[in-house]
Design goal:
Bound molecules: fe (ii) ion
CATH topology: TIM Barrel
CATH architecture: Alpha-Beta Barrel
Strand content: 15-25%
Largest sheet: 6 strands, parallel
Shape: globular
């Protein structure tokens, strides 16, 4: 790999969602992913009403505290701040008010949906994001029940330019057999524009290593490089071509 992998989904900011609990754990995740070949790891803490009521200012503060300690430490990849936005009406108000937390550069933002209920006409919201200059990156399509058997419900979203982001650990059963099978099918179908770790704790790093090996076995070295290195960079740069 030339410039290293870029992780667009990771929970290493301590104590603010269901990710790492301490700074040491956060550093362990960063160093572990660095050792696997990640040169950049973007923090994407949850913003999800009634579960993780984080807001932009608090996330920026937490990120600043981490960077003040972690920045430049040996073995720690470059970092950045985004958020994993749960796509509901609260998100929409935050987004319109400029209070969402897109990826560095502001060209794209990570969103997740309800796991059990597929939102009606969600592609309209995705389209609205696009015309406001922010490309939606959909977290773990393989983990939504509505997509276990078929990708059809996602097609309208893909048509308006949503980037599917694979959780690599889905490929080694981290989220169960249904998600694993859906991930393998979606890889075949070309649903994914990029892949990520979605690591939540230091113990995930070993599974991520196995998952990347599995990804390579399934799609080959070249496509693995596209999914983990080249295309995440295109998302950040705003140069996605679908
Ligand atoms: Fe996540």
């Amino acid at each position: 790999m030339s410039d290293g992998y870029v992780d667009l989904h990771c929970h290493y900011l301590p104590g603010i969602d269901d990710g790492v609990r301490t700074l040491d754990e956060g550093l362990a995740v960063l160093r572990g992913l660095g050792a696997l070949g990640f040169s950049t790891v973007v923090a994407t803490p949850h913003i999800r009403t009634a579960m993780f009521d984080n807001r932009k200012a608090g996330l920026e503060r937490a990120y600043g505290e981490l960077v003040a300690i972690a920045g430049g430490l040996p073995g720690v990849p470059a970092t950045g701040l985004g958020a994993e936005h749960y796509l509901d009406d609260v998100f929409w108000e935050l987004f319109l008010a400029g209070e969402a937390v897109p990826y560095p550069g502001g060209k794209a933002a990570l969103v997740e949906l309800h796991y059990e209920v597929w939102p009606r006409r969600i592609e309209e919201r995705f389209f609205e994001m696009q015309i406001r200059g922010v490309r939606p990156v959909l977290a773990h399509p393989e983990r939504y029940a509505a997509l276990f058997g078929s990708t059809d419900p996602l097609d309208p979203a893909l048509e308006v330019g949503v980037c599917g982001l694979l959780d690599v650990m889905s490929l080694v059963g981290r989220y169960g057999h249904k998600s694993q099978r859906a991930a393998e099918r979606m890889l075949d179908e070309g649903v994914y524009y990029a892949a990520c770790t979605d690591a939540h704790r230091p113990g995930d790093v070993e599974l991520v290593a196995r998952a990347i090996e599995r990804l390579r076995a399934l799609v080959g070295a070249e496509e693995t490089e596209e999914l983990l290195a080249e295309n995440p960079r295109r998302i950040l740069a705003g140069t996605v071509e679908l």
